[in-house]
Amino acid sequence: MGLETALWRAVAVYRWVAFGYAAVLIAANAHKYEHPLGGWAVMAVMAAWSGCTTFAYADPSRRRRPLLAADMAVTTGCLLSTAWVESVWGLTHGMPTLPASWVAAAVLAWAVAGGRRAGVAAAAILAAGNITINVLAGVPPVRGLGSGTFNGIMLLFMAGLVVGHVVKLARDAEARLARAVELEAATRERERLARRIHDSVLQVLAMVQRRGGELGGEAAELGRLAGEQEVALRALIGAGTPAPAGGAEAPADLRALLARHGSTSVTVSAPATPVTLPGHAAREIEAAVAAALDNVRRHCGPDARAWVLLEDDGAGGVTVSVRDDGPGMPPERLARAEAAGRLGVAQSIRGRVRDLGGTVTIVSAPGEGTEIEMVVPAGPVA
């Protein structure tokens, strides 16, 4: 049984319990009414409408504005009939209306269907009906609107507001639970696929890499490529859940983005816990790392190795280092490249990190490789 079904069943149960209470009051006070037969007629209408709404609200396709409007019309009619059935003495001395607390069932139905606003609107309609009773009977509103009637009106407003709010919270909780169940199912399916890939594709790639290295020549190159694809595929199936969609500022785990660049020649090291950044910042850092690795491939040769280290200091800063074992470069080389119009490092790395409010430090010397350290704030940048 879902949440909606449980809520509407609760409204139906309350309607019948409140009808029983109203029936007892009508039976006990019928001899005091101005028109006793009118009281019995109203009780019959309430019984018939309680049965109709019990079956009507049970069908989700009927829980729409026409049924809600009809529910409010019948409830208001039973309420206003008090002005004709009840005596002037009863109205001036605070006797309960004919439907008594039965009218709150319509408020609950509106609150369940439309939330807080609909519940408060239904309470306002019935509050106006309580005041109209005295006008129809010719009783001054000040005399007829006693403390009991006023308390009943306030209870209607509180019921509409509180029940509508609780229903909204319950629906939100149900939606989050459904989303969690979907994510759990997706995670299990991902793990199942990862096991199948591990048992088939990854083992084949590993065998190709091993046999290619043994055969040498062109086979060795094929083996190297197979090894790189094996590392990339392992990173893909082990990266975890991707960042949620929702625009450029949706948070993203920087670990998963950097893990895509791992290969047989590139080692990516990251913390065990997520390093979450705004989506734009995470993608810019990944692009800077990709530019640094591209420089390694172009300037250090195919046999060069690179290491990417991701660190989160826990105080709002993230550090990403890219180090290689290439030939290195003299200190003035970057300045000469920028002056000549080659802006790979200046724009692709320094420019991106600078726009994020971070800094870039490049340490290199001939024969000692190069290390690029990028430090960026973890929070959003103005």
Automatic annotation (TrEMBL):
The lineage of its organism: Bacteria, Bacillati, Actinomycetota, Actinomycetes, Streptosporangiales. Residues 1-178 form the DUF5931 domain. The keyword Membrane applies. GO terms for biological process: phosphorelay signal transduction system. Keywords: Kinase, Membrane, Transferase, Transmembrane, Transmembrane helix, Two-component regulatory system. It holds the Pfam family HATPase_c. Coiled coil: none annotated. This is Sensor histidine kinase. It comes from Actinomadura macrotermitis.
